[in-house]
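Hey, can you fold this one?
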Amino acid sequence: MQLDPHHDDTKRVRRGLIARARGNFLAGLIIVAPIALTLWLIWTVVGWVDGWVWPFVPQQYHPEALINLYFRPEGAAPITVNVRGIGVVVFLIFTMLVGWIGKGIMGRSFLRWGEHVVDRMPVVRSIYNGVKQIAETVFSQRDTSFDKACLIEYPRKGIWAIAFVSTNAKGEVRHKLSDGEEVATVFLPTTPNPTSGFLLFLPRSDIRELDMSVEDAAKLVISAGLVYPNSKDPTQPAKPAK
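Sure. Predicted structure:
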């Protein structure tokens, strides 16, 4: 039985076209997926903020009501339009106004009075104080971020994990643990959710500081080791953070 060489060539060309098409699809997916997910996330968050803000605004001041009031011809059907983003603007203006009032004497006095009332409510007091501390930590303009990324041996000797040095131990913790050596407060994040983790107190000698920035180390944790700081050559250390 004699094989047809033209048939083999056709199969090779077909396989080559399929391989190139698959490669182009994956390359396009790498480009399109982050953009699409980012746009979808922005669209969703804006819609969520709009849905939270507009119930507090009188109906006659909603964008759709104003458009129908000024642009709908007499006798025509009502204009239906989904105007997203204006609720975000209203929220930003309202928040800046509250911040401006809160900086004044009257605002601070009213805030102290409100917190005094909240302190008398057992359950509400715990929720309010917890949320307040988180908000102050996240949105504070003071330097409250992690100092350095580091490596520590966890959960046992010989196994290394990425962690973040926040500050030196203070107060009773420092008094109980300090034995002539500086003790650092270290946060050990979990993968892929770095917002949860463990608070550890370690001697400085047990910590190996990294040259990579805290942001690069967080990317490494979130990606489960897939995204290294030095993308050009992951085998080399990252450039020292500025």
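The mean pLDDT is 81. Let me know if you want another pass with a different chain boundary.
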